[in-house]
Amino acid sequence: MAIQRGPVRKRCAYLGIEATLLGYGGKPSKRTAPARSKPSAYALQLKEKQKVKFVYGVMERQFRRNFEKALRQGGSTGENLLTLMEKRLDNAVFRSGLAKTRAEARQLVSHRHVTVNGRRVSIPSQAVKQGDEIALRDDMAKTLGNRDRSGSRALPGWLSRDGEANCVKVLREPRRSDVDFDVREAMIVELYSK
b/e for 43-54, b at 16 or more Cβ within 10 A? Predict the structure, then answer.
């Protein structure tokens, strides 16, 4: 499996997103000087695709498979793609506040510290469904403590926190409006339709 190991803040500045979106705090990164020439349509489309891939932490092959699945679903392909990406287990762990960063959420799932409906899971790309209960294992919850790890992020409408701080329930399927960053998904569809 390939891992993205580059500087996160520099990549965020290039893609035009805030590092807080990925869970990194601190001061905002400096904006770079504007480009000298107007970017082509292809460059804009590619940048939108790179933005979504970077935020959700997926590589090209997995992203392409999700796009093809979204294409087969019918309806708006771009919205279907963002819904599929939002339903990923590592994203649900991050958005629920069980992890500080998206990378930490992925690691918690990969190291089997997360349970879905009482069963340990180790696949970050697993899709969550309505009614699923996501929780940290008891020993990991003790290690991390019962603190809210979400920082200033609000809990999205498709998730709800049950009585205890380390358990989250999926209320419904995520929608396009639940995506917490600015993306033009139509450009991604145009890029792959060439």
Answer: eebebbbbbbbb
Give the domains, in start order, of the chain with CATH numbers. Answer: 8-85+177-192 (1.10.1050.10), 88-173 (3.10.290.10)
pTM of this prediction exceeds 0.85 = no
- Secondary structure letter of residue 127 according to DSSP: B
pLDDT digits (tens, 9 = 90+) for 84-108: 999 999 999 998 888 888 888 999 9
Is the Cβ–Cβ distance between 108 and 140 less than 8 Å?
yes
Cα distance from N-terminal residue to C-terminal residue, the chain: 27
C-alpha torsion 123→124→127→128, nearest 10: 100
CA angle, corner 12, sides to 9 and 15, nearest 5? 155
